[in-house]
Amino acid sequence: MNSRDIDQLAKKIWDYHLMRQPLKKADYIFVLCSNDLRVAEYAAKLYQDGWAPKIIFSGNRGSLTNTWPEPEAEKFAQIAIREGVPEKDIIKEPNATNTGENVAFTRKLFQDKDLAIGSLIALQKPFMERRAYATIKKLWPEIDFVVSSPPISYENYPNEILDKEYLINTMVGDLQRLQLYPLKGFIVPQPIPKDVWDAYEKLVQAGFTKHLVVQS
């Protein structure tokens, strides 16, 4: 399989993961932190543009950020402050190590602090929008929310830190999770079109298996 064929298959999965929900004003911007610092910059921009008056960053260190000296939430908060977000408008949840914990721990934090919240703008990497959506629907069903991500195309997403091989492996693995995780009660089911699943199978056959869940 040549690189053009791989890109066509990967773009089909990218387009499926990307939900393209329109923004609407909310009480908080909820950032599911990761290794992509562009999401922190996007959160700061949405704050500056008036989409929400507060930001909460959720994330500890993960497999791709375990060399950072601080939790992802702290790193993202530092970027937001650098971009002009006042520290008083930032909340940090520094313990979550996966998407489910991002949602569950943040929900509990709001409950423990007795903070009023009715709506969220949830931010993730573009190719993790659908997984974030399905997780919030399952673990925080009462919240009104939309999912968004930095407006970066598939072609422009890879950079010196997150290369194309990482991108495709992660997208393939997340699609597998969308199939498996409803059975475990982690997320609400998401219909996966046949052409998207066909693209998944071809990319797995091509060797993009580094992010797959090992099934027993």
Q: What is the makeup of the main sheet?
A: 5 strands, parallel
CATH topology heading of the largest domain: Rossmann fold
Structural class: alpha/beta
N/C terminus separation: 29 Å
What characteristic shape results from the CA principal axes? globular
The order of strands across the largest sheet is 3-2-1-4-5
Number of domains: 2
- CATH architect. name of the largest domain: 3-Layer(aba) Sandwich
SSE pattern, N- to C-terminal: HEHEHEHEHEHH
Q: What is the number of strand segments? A: 5
Strand content: 5-15%
CATH class of the largest domain: Alpha Beta
Your description of this structure?
It holds the Pfam family DUF218. This is DUF218 domain-containing protein. With 216 residues, the chain is α/β, with parallel strands linked by helices. It folds into two domains: 3-15 and 155-205, no CATH class; 19-148, Rossmann fold (3-Layer(aba) Sandwich), CATH 3.40.50.620. It is built from seven helices and five strands, in the order H-E-H-E-H-E-H-E-H-E-H-H. The chain has helices at residues 3-17, 38-48, 72-82, 99-113, 129-139, 164-184, 194-205; strands at 28-32, 55-58, 90-93, 119-123, 144-148. The longest helix has 21 residues, at 164-184. It starts with a helix and ends in an 11-residue tail after the last helix. The model has no long low-confidence stretch (mean pLDDT 95).
SSE map:
Blueprint: H1 3-17, E1 28-32, H2 38-48, E2 55-58, H3 72-82, E3 90-93, H4 99-113, E4 119-123, H5 129-139, E5 144-148, H6 164-184, H7 194-205
Parallel strand pairs: 1-2, 1-4, 2-3, 4-5
Domain DUF218: 27-144
Organism: Candidatus Woykebacteria bacterium RIFCSPHIGHO2_02_FULL_43_16b
InterPro entries: Cell_Envelope_Assoc, DUF218, Rossmann-like_a/b/a_fold
